Each structure stands twice: as structure tokens, then as C-alpha cells.
Amino acid sequence: MTDDDNLAGDRPEQVPESLQTLAGYLERSLDGASSVVMMRHTTDVCTVYLGDPDGPREDLKQIGAISTALANRMLESTSSGVNAMQIGGQAYRFARSFTEVAGMAAVVFSTE
């Protein structure tokens, strides 16, 4: 479990861009009671979706795209399994896992 207050301090200027971005996606997933799903379709870009990674690929809703470098920093700042951390003064508890969606590798951040 990741619990690193130094990594994601209370002041926004201390919070790495990767965690600010992740927090924004987690907030959206909470609003829709769904998971954040990231898939790399090209070498430079990860597409971000909201939805159930176990459901049909067509049911995932694309909500953004981020650089692979930013996605890698998200992965470096979190761990597989349950994570609990402060990001910009807000407490987040989520699980990070890996799966396949329509034959493509995917990273899933789930707040359920």
C-alpha cells in the first residue's frame, strides 16, 4: 500500500503532475461509479477511459489521452493493489490492477 505524504503534499505546487492528473480521473470515476482504464494504443500516447474493464470494449467512454511518460510517472507513484494517499489535500483510496480489454493490456484504477 502506498502512503507517501511527501510525494503528494497538501500544497498543489508540491503535487506531481502525474498525481494531479490521476486525482482528476479518480474524481470523475467516483462521479460515475466506474473505473479509470488506461490503454496504450501508440508508443507515445495512453488513452484514458471510464467504465467497466470487464464489460464490452464499446461501453468504455474515452475521456482523455495522456503522454506515455505521464502514464509511466503515475505507475511509478502508485503500486499494484490498494493505495491510500493524499493528493493536494484530498484523501484517495483506490486499487491499481492490470487486465486485458479486447486483447490489449490495460491499467485499471478502481475506487470500489
List keywords for this structure.
single chain, 112 residues, alpha+beta, Beta-Lactamase, 6-stranded antiparallel β-sheet, 2 helices, 6 strands, 41% strand, globular
What can you see in these coordinates?
The chain is an alpha+beta fold. The chain has one domain (about 15-110): 2-Layer Sandwich (Beta-Lactamase). It contains 2 helices and 6 strands; from the N terminus they run αβββαβββ. The protein has helices spanning about 15-30, 70-75; strands at about 35-40, 45-50, 60-65, 80-85, 90-100, 105-110. Strands 3-2-1-6-5-4 form a 6-stranded antiparallel beta sheet. Helix 1 (about 15-30) packs across helix 2 (about 70-75). The protein is globular. Residues about 1-10 have low confidence and may be disordered.
Number of helices: 2
CATH class value:
Alpha Beta
Radius of gyration: 13 Å
Q: Mean of residue pLDDT?
A: 88
| Number of DSSP-assigned strands | 6
Task: Please give the domain count.
Answer: 1
Structural class: alpha+beta
**What is the second-level CATH architecture?**
2-Layer Sandwich
Residue windows where pLDDT falls under 50 for at least 5 positions:
1-10
| Coarse shape | globular
Strand content: 35-45%
Strand order of the largest sheet: 3-2-1-6-5-4
Q: Please name the CATH topology.
A: Beta-Lactamase
The main pleated sheet reads as: 6 strands, antiparallel
The residue fraction in helices comes out at 10-25%
Protein name: Roadblock/LAMTOR2 domain-containing protein
Organism: Paraburkholderia podalyriae
